Amino acid sequence: MAETSSGRPVAVFDLDNTLAATAHRQRFLERSPRDWDGFFAAAWADPPLAEGIALVLRSARDCEIVYLTGRPERCRADTVDWLAAHGLPEGTVHMRRDGDRRPARVTKLEILRRLARSRTVRVLVDDDELVCDDAERAGFTVLRARWAERSATLEAAQEREGRT
After folding, report:
1. Is the Cβ–Cβ distance between 46 and 20 less than 8 Å?
2. In a domain, 96, yes or no
3. From the CB of residue 49, how many other CB atoms can be counted at a distance below 10 Å?
């Protein structure tokens, strides 16, 4: 997807449980040990979340879209294909480096700050409460995506295992 280049502000969207419903693949995280390869391999089948999709399409009228996900870089092709298959606007996709296990609240805030050095970040839309809390404390405008089914298993994995 295209690198951000216009002078328009950016709207930053998370993927999992913001634009894409992950409930069908939670079973991979309920095992011991967690099956992260299975979890990410099943992402291509995520149903879109209507509220998130509508919001990203509305935001694209005034903003350049940036996708910011905790998914590892090895999932890029499936992720870009999923965005295109669901008619989402082009935008830069920022992903976690393979092997980076820092919590999402750390990795995402790092990228938000980097974006803000050269662009106006109009809004971050994310379902992760810890990411949202830290982004708000850092001065970013946040819209909390509360339209997906919550998963305590996924939330714990995001924070403790730094996987998504």
Report:
1. yes
2. yes
3. 22
User: Does the pLDDT at position 103 exceed 70?
Assistant: yes
> CA-CA distance, 146 to 149, in Å (whole number)?
8
Selection from 11, 14, 49 nearest residue 131 by Cα: 14
Domain boundaries, position 145: 10-161
Q: How many domains does the chain have?
A: 1
Instruction: Indicate the angle between helix axes 129-137 and 104-116, nearest 10 degrees.
Output: 40
Structure tokens at 21: 């419903």
* pLDDT above 60: residue 161: no
Q: What is the pTM of this model?
A: 0.89
Summarised one tens digit per residue, pLDDT across range 47-71 is 999 999 999 999 999 999 999 999 9
pLDDT at 155 over 70: no
Output the domain CATH number for residue 94. 3.40.50.1000
Count Cβ atoms within 10 A of the Cβ of residue 129 and give its class: 0-12 exposed, 13-18 middle, 19 or more buried. middle
